[in-house]
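lol forgot to send this yesterday, sorry. struct tokens for the thing we talked abt
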């Protein structure tokens, strides 16, 4: 069996402000190689000249700040206007997927987590041995976004831009409860790591699953 086929690759998702990034950090502390697609997007918006040029051409000075892109201004546009969000996704998502797939291919780690907010929306289920959804109620999502300084309208726009969290949870293989304390989330992940993933990490192929109806776009 090749080294590549002995890798386990897990897709980590969840609604905005549900705790998926925190979950990713916990997995990393347990020795997993964690790739954040949000971080890849940030790097593209900061350093990919072609992406930056296309965005400037479409939205002009209203998304420019200190000679670079203003991510908050971009967020206000794409979370309010669906057509603009789809346009941005059309130039970002192929680049993001290429980068995380290349990173996994080149990684020597046997246990890999890919954090993808729009995993189900983009029909990526078959790419992973397991999918994990971090769940928090919409009320918790709203409170956390308000605590980050967003307005109620901005928070609602962000929540509504994704599949409802209940639907994501139904599509996932495993659901983690991210609406409570950090210690509770750590206990859940530690159990998965020790009793589910760790004993079998070398036995699961990274190859795509057989096609099913799970994860189909709505």
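and heres what i got for the seq, position by position
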């Amino acid at each position: 069996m090749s080294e590549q086929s002995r890798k386990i690759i897990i897709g980590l998702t969840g609604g905005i402000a549900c705790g998926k990034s925190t979950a990713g950090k916990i997995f990393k502390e347990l020795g997993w190689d964690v790739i954040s697609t949000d971080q890849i997007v940030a790097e593209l918006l900061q350093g990919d000249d072609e992406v930056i040029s296309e965005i400037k051409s479409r939205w002009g000075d209203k998304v420019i700040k200190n000679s670079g892109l203003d991510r908050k201004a971009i967020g206000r546009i794409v979370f309010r206007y669906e057509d603009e969000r789809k346009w941005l996704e059309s130039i970002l998502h192929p680049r993001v997927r290429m980068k995380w797939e290349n990173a996994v291919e080149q990684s020597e780690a046997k246990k890999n987590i890919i954090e993808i907010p729009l995993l189900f929306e983009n029909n990526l289920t078959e790419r992973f041995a397991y999918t994990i959804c971090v769940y928090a109620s919409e009320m918790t999502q709203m409170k956390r976004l308000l605590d980050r300084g967003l307005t109620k309208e901005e928070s609602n726009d962000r929540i509504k831009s994704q599949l409802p969290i209940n639907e994501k949870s139904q599509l996932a293989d495993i659901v983690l409860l991210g609406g409570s304390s950090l210690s509770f989330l750590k206990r859940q992940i530690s159990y998965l790591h020790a009793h589910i993933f760790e004993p079998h990490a070398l036995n699961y192929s990274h190859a795509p699953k057989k096609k099913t109806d799970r994860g189909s776009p709505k």
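The first strand starts at residue 8 and ends at 14. anyway ping me if u want another try
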